[in-house]
Design a protein that fits this description.
Largest sheet: 6 strands, parallel
CATH topology of the largest domain: Rossmann fold
Structural class: alpha/beta
Order of helices and strands: EHEHEHEHEHEEHEHEHHHHHH
Number of domains: 2
Helix content: 40-55%
Strand order of the largest sheet: 3-2-1-4-5-6
CATH superfamily of the largest domain: NAD(P)-binding Rossmann-like Domain
Strand content: 5-15%
Bound molecules: NADP nicotinamide-adenine-dinucleotide phosphate
Amino acid sequence: MAKIGWIGLGNMGNPMSKNLLDAGHDLQVWNRTKSKADELVGAGAVLADSPKAAAAASDFVFTMVADGPTLHAVTLGADGLVAGLSPGKIVVDMSTVSVEESSKVNAAVEAAGCKFLRAPVTGSVALAKAGTLGILTSGDKASYDKTLPLFEIMGGNQFYLGGGDEARVMKLSLNLMIATTMQMEAEAVVLAEKAGLDAQQAADIIAGSAVGSPLTNYKKALIGAGNYAPAFSVKLMIKDLKLAEAVGKQYGVSLESTKLTKSRLELAAEKGYGEMDFSILTKLLEEESDFVR
Ligand code: NAP
């Protein structure tokens, strides 16, 4: 069984690490808000004092945190995991961060004689719980092969994309489609509602139509019920679209619908919906269209 350190027990990190624990691996966890580790500790995980301590006790160290600055804090800070590394360990970041932020961590991990895998995920909390995420990985291939049995516990779809930061770019390409799809669905549902149709029926029809997708299927009951409890927050999606725009700029690709959707999400955040699910774009448009359910 592998010795695993896990940093970051938010909506995603908690169920992902729980699946590793349930598979019988030794798990050391660390989270800024300690109480989020209670359930895992009750199930047999060890609460580490710092990311550094979790890394020192493990052969594989995973991070699943909000964004690049947080990744830097938990890896490069005084008590960060890099300070706990000894040669031969594998560090895996599964958060969504920029290529630049990722490269900085890679340099520090390699300087410690270890390997760094970039492994952002597709799919939300339900798939994290079910162990059926899509995992996009790039970095050292031999380290990928060693880590694959652990990835397979967390995800049903594995993709190896190359030796560098390829997975970061692919993840952002995917997320810009996820975000713009929710903006399109908001427009379709609110138009139907204003014309007297039922939101649930509209969302069901969309999910079952030619434009239906796993995403429109996950979201149909929530949009139908107007339930925007966070699976993936507005705040985090804005972060991803900003990163996608930066990659677009870097490669000279104009991302017009991404820009528009980002401005809609920023408006939602200004209205106080930053912590809600990004599918709240439907509610935002209902409000602007003077529609009350
Ligand atoms: P989340 O629930 O907001 O959790 C964020 C994690 O980051 C928590 O462990 C949080 O600690 C930690 N954190 C935030 N700021 C910190 C700081 N300054 N110092 C130390 N720790 C800090 O986010 P999530 O939904 O699990 O997402 C995690 C990553 O996966 C993000 O990069 C996101 O873009 C990506 N992702 C999410 C989804 C999804 O559907 N949710 C899907 C695919 C990818 P506290 O508990 O102390 O706040």
